[in-house]
Amino acid sequence: MGVKEIQGRVDASGKRFAIVVSRWNELVTKELLEGALSELKRCGDPEIEVIHVPGTWEMPPVVKALVSRTENRPDGVIALGCILQGQTPHAKLLGSDVGGALMGLQVSYGVPISWGVLTPDTQDQALDRAGLKLGNKGREAAQAAVETASVLDQI
């Protein structure tokens, strides 16, 4: 008996991806979006739909509408946003609720939803993660969506 090994490929050719991006903290999210678009094009230039939402809180119903489509359903969704920590528990609650909702959608619908939502303490940390010093988390989220879609295709 042999061992079958499945590994994701970074090839988005012929695929369809949706990016849901928050307008809140646009200085950061614009850079995340550019990173995600650049990575998707590098991975084979798939069909891409970009949906702008007011904030991270508004992402789950929009993502649900995308993954529950019967036509033009994306092979993967990339969620991009930035939740800055403050002096209240608001940011932690928001991140947890949105993350849990998106996780539930990807499990229920079988469509990968990659997490490109930053949760830094400061604006400087956010900018660093959006491409200034620590890579671009939008690019990383796009690559994760492509690879996970590839794995699902092979199962």
SS element count, helices: 5
| CATH second-level architecture | 3-Layer(aba) Sandwich
Largest sheet: 4 strands, parallel
Instruction: Calculate Rg over CA atoms.
Output: 15 Å
CATH topology: Rossmann fold
- Inertia-based shape: globular
Percentage of residues in helical conformation:
40-55%
Full CATH superfamily name: Lumazine/riboflavin synthase
For the largest beta sheet, what order do the strands appear in spatially? 2-1-3-4
In what range is the share of β-strand residues? 15-25%
Counting DSSP E segments of at least 2 residues, the number of strands comes to: 4
Report the average pLDDT across residues. Answer: 94
**What number of domains?**
1
First and last CA, distance: 18 Å
Determine the structural class based on helices, strands and strand pairing.
alpha/beta
Determine and state the CATH class.
Alpha Beta
Low-confidence runs (pLDDT<50, min 5 residues)?
none
Order of helices and strands: EHEHEHEHH
Features:
single chain; Rossmann fold; 155 residues; alpha/beta; globular; 17% strand
Description:
The protein is α/β, with parallel strands linked by helices and 155 residues long. It has one domain: Rossmann fold. The protein has helices at 26-42, 59-67, 90-109, 123-129, 137-154, and strands at residues 16-22, 47-53, 76-82, 113-118. Strands 2-1-3-4 form a four-stranded parallel β-sheet, with helices on both faces. The chain starts with 15 loop residues before the first strand and ends with a helix. The model has no long low-confidence stretch (mean pLDDT 94).
